[in-house]
Amino acid sequence: MSLDKMFFEKFLKNLFSDTVKVRYWDGTEEKYGEGQEKFKIYINKDIPNKDIVRDPFLTLGEAYMDKTLDFDGNVREIIESIYKNKESFLHKADSFSKIYKVLPNTLKKSKKDVQYHYDLGNDFYSLWLDKTMTYSCAYFKNENDSIYDAQVNKVNYILKKLNLKEGQRLLDIGCGWGELVIEAAKKYGVNALGVTLSKEQFKKASEKVRENNLEGKVEIKLMDYRELVGKTDKFDRIVSVGMIEHSGRKNLPVYMKDVRDMLKESGVSLLHCITAQKEGEANEWIKKYIFPGGYIPSIRELVSLMADNDLHLVDAESLRLHYYMTLKCWAENFENNLDEIKKIKDDRFIRMWRLYLNACAASFHYGVVDIHQFLFTKGLNNELPMTRDYLYKD
User: Keywords of this protein's UniProt record, alphabetized (predicted)?
Assistant: First the structure.
């Protein structure tokens, strides 16, 4: 047996929680584990050992994109099989990320990073998102909810948590395609401002405002929220869904201070974001190909920063399994619309996004990330309901 195959045998032997069969580049096959294999893995070309040792996330991710590595079986379930092994590299992303330099998220870099991901084209996202074009964790009241139902649930759930009143001013930081601010204006009569750095989102959200005849009630701006600080009247409510993960670790204190400065006294803010149990950088494959500049904050980082800014935590709720189900739906929609996606994206891009959607679903199901909604107030607020009953009434 060659030294390269000896390395792979050692690497793969204890990697999975299920039995796998591996077909190597020379046509030989090996089974790792007992009983019937659940997955089959193809290593079509030798992958340099030193690259795997240096960074298995980046090396194996690129190998799949380039068809050097391939699978028979459900990609998500294969990754879950690795996550179930607590000693696997999937639980040690930060130790590999330390070899890379983290650049500060300036206004210019933030704009570039966000546009890299969100300006892939509304035509692309519309093929596998639901018709609301909501690209964040949904809320499943029951397992039979469609992804559309669950996204409508999520928006309504957030709006209820904010306890909106007619005439209030609402800011949505990273407003996406505008569904939340539009619903807030329609259902609660608030005056809403949504800001995004994505040209494609700005274009579509602005169209939706006009279609709903909400000019004068809802405004969409193509800008960094940091450009608003000190230049606008204060808001009664501030919401942010899936934005802070793009800010970078060094800008977390900036975000909390800016929210404090833009909120009225006793104002309410909801932060909906992916969270980590402990501090650490995301893996380099995700940062290089999917979310440049991304950082997943720990729960204690966020709560500590709230305290530093006299922001009082009222409620914190984990939606981890909701995001697993959301990503599972997106991955299925992606595969079901592959013929249309192939008309606008090449094979390497498709494999990259298949891996991204399924790896994220696996990570929320059995892995290292969570997602929380934090509800907090500037100073004390004695007007919010004392129980959660209001959240579950139609």
Answer: Lipid metabolism, Methyltransferase, S-adenosyl-L-methionine, Transferase
